[in-house]
Amino acid sequence: MTGRCPDCGMRLEGEVCSSCGAFDFAGLTSWVCFACGAQNAHHQGRCGCGRERVVECAACGAEVPFAEGRCAKCGTGRELFEAAKEARARSEEVLRLRRAARSLTWRAAPMLCLGACLLWKGSTPLRMAGGGLVGLSVVGGAYALVTARQARRQVN
């Protein structure tokens, strides 16, 4: 099923809302208790196990009582949960791109140094290998630069 959950407004990615536990969207919605897995009627605010119905805050991941309008931990309003979820996913992608660029830069630096040493002091076959290492490290550095710029663009 695609679309939005009629209970909490989050984007649906399956048959059960991963944020509030709602399901059975054709009739009256019901909800699943995340603690024990029991199915509950829509109007029930508590599960038979005693746990209150909650919705996950998309900004910080805290559990917010379903009846509340704001997250007690970070103060984000429930109407902003979907936007916060998308922003969090985007920032995680930016961090992943930055880590990848940093890792590639650190891997390319020793190849550049070794290639330069071989070019400077090596015999003809070693100079050819050194030139290849320098070329490889320059290409790796350029790719790292492009990746870092992609991350910077996604922030803006």
Question: What this model shows, in words?
Answer:
With about 160 residues, the chain is mainly alpha-helical. About 45% of the residues lie in helices and about 10% in strands. It has two helices and five strands. The strands form two sheets. Strands 1-2-3 form a three-stranded antiparallel beta sheet, with no helix packed on it. It has a two-stranded antiparallel sheet with strand order 4-5.
Summary keywords:
rod-shaped; three-stranded antiparallel beta sheet; mainly alpha; 156 residues
Write the layout of secondary structure elements.
Layout: E1 22-23, E2 30-32, E3 39-40, E4 54-56, E5 63-65, H1 81-121, H2 124-155
Antiparallel strand pairs: 1-2, 2-3, 4-5
Helix pairs in contact: 1-2
User: What profile does the largest beta sheet have?
Assistant: 3 strands, antiparallel
Enumerate how many helices there are, as a single number.
2
User: What Rg do the Cα atoms give?
Assistant: 26 Å
The best one-word shape is rod-shaped
Low-confidence stretches: none
Physical arrangement of strands within the biggest beta sheet: 1-2-3
Strand content: 5-15%
Quick synopsis:
By secondary structure, this protein is mainly α.
